[in-house]
């Protein structure tokens, strides 16, 4: 739900729907009748054409109405239909974008959970490897194991440490991806996140 409120790409889809809706309203307005009020004025002046002495009392005045009835509005109807089609397309794109965002968020959450579980497993693996090195060292001192056994346990410890580091990095990446997908990852101008 947070993603649906904070994702800028979804906000852009909403803006496109609003733009298409405004175009539909403008096109619908073009289908109606038009009624214009028209007026005219002719004013005479003195014979030497002195405009400072206009004679408004001898002028001719006219008023009227200019009506355009919607009898033949084929072009306007076509424009109106096109705007309706565009509106429906934008609504479908919004629904598609919403579905994609929900899918991305679910997948990012699953990836985050999987990375967290992998981190826990690698942490347990590291603990076991450390205990193995301790016990192998004690058994070597007691003369019950060879140096090769100690080296193998130390190699396993190093591998467990590397795996834990990789799991930690994967978890951090999954967390950032999840934050990005729900729209709360804010990146500062220097490229770092908050």
Question: What does this 3D model show about the protein?
Answer:
The chain is an alpha+beta fold. The protein has a domain of 109 residues. It contains four helices and two strands. The chain has a two-stranded antiparallel sheet with strand order 1-2. The protein starts with a helix and ends in a 12-residue tail after the last helix.
Main traits of this protein?
194 residues; alpha+beta; two-stranded antiparallel ribbon; 4 helices; 13% strand
Give the SSE layout.
Blueprint: H1 2-6, H2 8-29, E1 34-44, E2 55-68, H3 74-141, H4 147-182
Antiparallel strand pairs: 1-2
Helix pairs in contact: 2-3, 3-4
Question: Ends: how far apart?
Answer: 21 Å
For the report, how would you describe the main beta sheet? 2 strands, antiparallel
Order of helices and strands: HHEEHH
* Strand fraction: 5-15%
Number of beta strands: 2
Helix content: 55-70%
Name the strands of the widest sheet in spatial order: 1-2
Q: Uncertain segments of ≥5 residues (pLDDT<50)?
A: none
Q: Tally the helices: what do you get? A: 4
Q: Nearest-angstrom radius of gyration?
A: 39 Å
Report the structural category: alpha+beta
* Global mean pLDDT: 89
